Amino acid sequence: MTTANAAGDMSAEALQAAAHRHLWLHFTRMSSYQGTDMPVIVRGSGQYVYDARGKRYLDGLSGLFVSQIGHGRTEVAEAGARQAAELAYFPLWSYAHPRAIELAERLAALAPGDLNRVFFTTSGSEAVESAWKMAKQYFATIGQPHRYKVLSREIAYHGTSMGALAITGLPDIKIPFEPLPPGGVRVPNTNFYRAPGFVADDLTAFGRWAADEIERAILREGPDSVAAVYLEPVQNSGGCFPPPPGYFPRVREICDRYGVLLVSDEVICAFGRLGYYFGSQRYGYQPDVITFAKGVTSGYAPLGGMIVSDRLMEPFNDGPATFLHGVTFAGHPVSAAVALANLDVFEKEDLLGNVRANEAAFRSTLGKLTDLPIVGDVRGDGYFYGIEMVKEKTTRETFTGEESERLLRGFLSHALFDAGLICRADDRGDPVIQLAPPLTCTQEHFDEIEQILRSVLTEAWKQI
Ligand SMILES: Cc1ncc(COP(=O)(O)O)c(C=O)c1O
């Protein structure tokens, strides 16, 4: 039984009761909500969202790295509604529809180099997995059927479906689902704050070492068995690891030397997060495939996909060759219409320009937090930052598992939310707070983020 309020919706109390009884949250310890309210977000406007009791929160994570243009944009919502009325659904299996065609053309024009062919999916995991399947079939088609392995970095998150999970580099979220598809191989990430001693004081040498580890892994595995390397422009998981200077050019060189595909997983980093349509453009490297999702629609509808080079498409253009893969809702007309309207907002409001103009201010505002004893490192680029927390600043000593549990789950996550900031306290690597606010944010929002973090982190330090 549920209770309705005047608007016909469920009351805040009824929502809580039904959520506790019926809803299963993702990556969430459900027991942590026993006897306490689940956060229920009911609406959004600009950079802010509101809960069922009317309280306002600054959306410092764009939902989940998604809401680039912010919330409550009626013109984007209306584009979706118009499309649903005109053609709500038709598959991309053997047919095309105008919005998918228009969006594919527009993405190809925005993407770097010869990335001209778009294969749509509904999510990032599907995009990542589709790229792996495409790589395997591509190599089989050109007479290199033994190439199936994929390299990716330690602690990197590339999704949760079984194939994507095999590429993800977080052991804890893989173990319950093993055995996973074979072929996932790990290489070091670019966490300079935790660099090995022999390169710890030289960022360029560290980057060179990390890139060369990819070559060593290819040689170890056997070059003829490696299909692709998956890298995010800035690795999210672990707390924002930007690439050291020279890292990506070196990786490109290595991939070319061994005929391995470079997949730029831009599920987070595309669509303005780093001040460019694609993260690879910021760091000046040419991928063979870009995977995307999230910001392509700013979350007004779900959509993902991969953009593939002309060279990789070539064998699929001839004779009976067919990419044996598809998803019912991929490139959904409503999602494609919404993505086009989302990109219109990007252009009209020069959101890339806004990120580029303000990112230094965002960086320096967050940088003020380094005067706190708990803040070890503030790192990232664009509107994408990680703040690493430490127990001891000079030695960079991190927290024990038990301390981290108490700090992140026991205190920080709730305290930040209660203080009106949505961000993420994460300990999948060392404990970090992750920030990725809407691309419309300006100094007033940076200040609000800094002030909330300052007061909550000061309190956290007292509790350790
Ligand atoms: C880099 C990266 N790849 C893939 C994914 C998976 O995307 P989705 O959750 O849409 O399946 C994510 C999700 O956060 C991601 O950050």
Could you please describe the fold and organization of this structure?
This protein has 464 residues and is α/β, with parallel strands linked by helices. The chain has 14 helices and 15 strands. It has helices spanning 12-22, 62-65, 74-87, 98-110, 124-141, 162-167, 203-221, 247-258, 279-283, 310-313, 333-348, 351-367, 401-418, 443-463; strands spanning 41-45, 48-51, 56-59, 115-121, 149-153, 184-187, 226-231, 261-265, 289-292, 304-309, 375-381, 384-389, 421-422, 424-426, 432-435. The longest helix is centred in the C-terminal third of the chain and has 21 residues, at 443-463. The structure holds pyridoxal-5'-phosphate. Residues 123-125, 128, 157-159, 232, 236, 265, 267-268, 293, 304 line the site of pyridoxal-5'-phosphate (PLP).
Write the layout of secondary structure elements.
Elements: H1 12-22, E1 41-45, E2 48-51, E3 56-59, H2 62-65, H3 74-87, H4 98-110, E4 115-121, H5 124-141, E5 149-153, H6 162-167, E6 184-187, H7 203-221, E7 226-231, H8 247-258, E8 261-265, H9 279-283, E9 289-292, E10 304-309, H10 310-313, H11 333-348, H12 351-367, E11 375-381, E12 384-389, H13 401-418, E13 421-422, E14 424-426, E15 432-435, H14 443-463
Parallel strand pairs: 3-13, 5-6, 5-7, 7-8, 8-9
Antiparallel strand pairs: 1-2, 2-3, 4-10, 9-10, 11-12, 12-15, 14-15
Helix pairs in contact: 3-11, 4-11, 7-8, 12-14, 13-14
Bound molecules: pyridoxal-5'-phosphate.
